[in-house]
Amino acid sequence: MTSQEINLQEHQAEAADALSQAMQLMHDGQFLDANAALDSLNRALELDPSLAGARYYRSSLLFEIHQYDEALADANILLEAKPNHTKGHYTRGFILFQLGDLSNAARDFTQVISTDPTIAEAYVRRGFCYDGLGRTDEAIDDYTHALALDPAHLDANYRRGMAYMTLGQYEPALRDLSQAFILDSENSQIIMARAQAAIKLGQFDTAATALKRAVALDPRRSTLQALLAEALAGSNDIPGAIKSIHRAISLADATGDKAMARLYRQQLESYLGKPTP
């Protein structure tokens, strides 16, 4: 064995040790000490740039600490060397999505799905991409695939419901958003979306009940107060609607949101002329 080969073997062994040190800092899929782990991964790749495990984990770690360009560079190097690295495509999909490159992110998630069609999250993430690209029907298909694999997937239920809202299909939207509400009943965003679907279907009492809960969870959000006013007005509770829209105006004024305050005052005007039952 030549001295060069011996030196290479020593470097590879040291690189493997450095990777092992980094992995000792991982618990439940996350590094407990990101800086120490990054130092070990940097050392591993300095010694052996071809060490795929170190390249993958450094890309993932850089993504976690919001160094997206550096994370993408590592993912690209990894996938150039190992084009069928499923986890590499999955991670690069996340990075590209974060960077706003939805088309290429979708391609990476497609690669993951083609390799392993049982990963519900890959369908959800590709659905996010399709949503952002305006490909709503394809997004719904992906959320549906995800829910077939994991019926309790919160994001899939919520995002499919919102996609149906985009298409004006309010009954399936309400079903999905109601399921999302069951999964996370403290989420004011979900409650608000569910109420919007109910209002579109003329279910004003249902919407008002849900929105009162949302307001209790997030009392400083003017949009919730305004939507509650709309639901109450639909239920012919004009005094309640006026009270809620006054709160919305006050909240918008307090934050200096003149545009929303103007819209809320227009909403108020529409109630002032209505008779009280």
TrEMBL record:
<protein>
    <recommendedName>
        <fullName>Tetratricopeptide repeat protein</fullName>
    </recommendedName>
</protein>
<keyword id="KW-0802">TPR repeat</keyword>
<dbReference type="InterPro" id="IPR050498">
    <property type="entry name" value="Ycf3"/>
</dbReference>
<dbReference type="Pfam" id="PF00515">
    <property type="entry name" value="TPR_1"/>
</dbReference>
<feature type="repeat" description="TPR">
    <location>
        <begin position="120"/>
        <end position="153"/>
    </location>
</feature>
<dbReference type="Pfam" id="PF13181">
    <property type="entry name" value="TPR_8"/>
</dbReference>
<keyword id="KW-0677">Repeat</keyword>
<feature type="coiled-coil region">
    <location>
        <begin position="1"/>
        <end position="28"/>
    </location>
</feature>
<feature type="repeat" description="TPR">
    <location>
        <begin position="188"/>
        <end position="221"/>
    </location>
</feature>
<feature type="repeat" description="TPR">
    <location>
        <begin position="86"/>
        <end position="119"/>
    </location>
</feature>
<dbReference type="InterPro" id="IPR011990">
    <property type="entry name" value="TPR-like_helical_dom_sf"/>
</dbReference>
<feature type="repeat" description="TPR">
    <location>
        <begin position="154"/>
        <end position="187"/>
    </location>
</feature>
<dbReference type="Pfam" id="PF13432">
    <property type="entry name" value="TPR_16"/>
</dbReference>
<dbReference type="InterPro" id="IPR019734">
    <property type="entry name" value="TPR_rpt"/>
</dbReference>
<keyword id="KW-0175">Coiled coil</keyword>
<dbReference type="Pfam" id="PF14559">
    <property type="entry name" value="TPR_19"/>
</dbReference>
